Task: structure prediction
Amino acid sequence: VPSLSISEDGKRPQFGTRFLTDPRQVFQHNAWDNVEWTEEQEASAKKKVLENCQPLPSEKQEEYENRANEYWNDFYTIHENRFFKDRHWLFTEFPELCPQCSPNNVTHQKVSSTGRCVQDEERAKQGAAVSPINVNFPGATASYRILEVGCGVGNTVFPILKTNNDPELFVYCCDFSSTAVDLVKTNPEYNLGRCFAFVHDLSDVEANYPIPDGTLDVIVLIFVLSALHPIKMQASISRLARLLKPGGVMLLRDYGRYDMAQLRFKKGRCLSDNFYVRGDGTRVYFFTQEELHSMFTEAGLEKVQNLVDRRLQVNRGKQLTMYRVWIQCKYHKPLVPSPETRDGDAEHDCS
Result:
């Protein structure tokens, strides 16, 4: 899998500290971090993908597109809140979700007496100066706002609310599935004073958000962009970028090219290049770093981080090895937008 330059200081952040130095020890642990592929492995993966690249007929593809909402509602009806575990790893990889509780923030910023990063407070002031806010929306009085897109049953939202005790924090969360959003709202930890959940189709760029443009500090996309049809991804990211304050950041973690899940698809599941349908009707795309970089920069955002997480997972009981490939990105909105971005935003003053 090709790689881009990674972070501002040129160093690749580590996802973990367990490295496989002796292949004979592979079954000593359940997982190994930052596992590099051999040329033979990558060639084998490419061959496997090519063997299953014949797309389904267009009428079948249209059916999966038109019934996407139905398939995701069925998914959450069946699994409810039992499928995913809370993502507590988020605060290690994305300290922006709780700046005051992460002394090792990637930006190494100072913390003020309120517990928030000094730079965050300055950014909030600058954002407020350039974006007059209509006070009639949920969380209007908050000064630090996070939106999770594709929230599912709240496995990201509720850990944020538990961990980040900033009184100025407000968290928004939305999902394509009304069933998922209902499960969030009925969770005992759902608090309208700190959180607002709503149904939203990310791919419908004409649909209104309950949040004005230029008011969000952080947008989180965890394994959600990959569920969209590829032709709708760019417009969706560009629409989300308008919601960010100057200096705000978009965080993404999603499936990378040749992940184990891609290689496991059988013939008859391919919709288009690197885009597949699962047995339950939900769909998934497998990205390269370059594809994501192109989408974010086209939306007017600047790279903070774009890296591949290659992990070797092990089933010690069955003596199986499974190679996972995920991509993690952070892209921020410039404090001073480019002339092209300003011209584009002038046409979209309302959300």
User: Anything to note?
Assistant: The domain at 27-98+140-333 is CATH 3.40.50.150 (Rossmann fold). The chain has one domain: 27-98+140-333. Residues 304 and 330 are 5 Å apart (CA to CA).
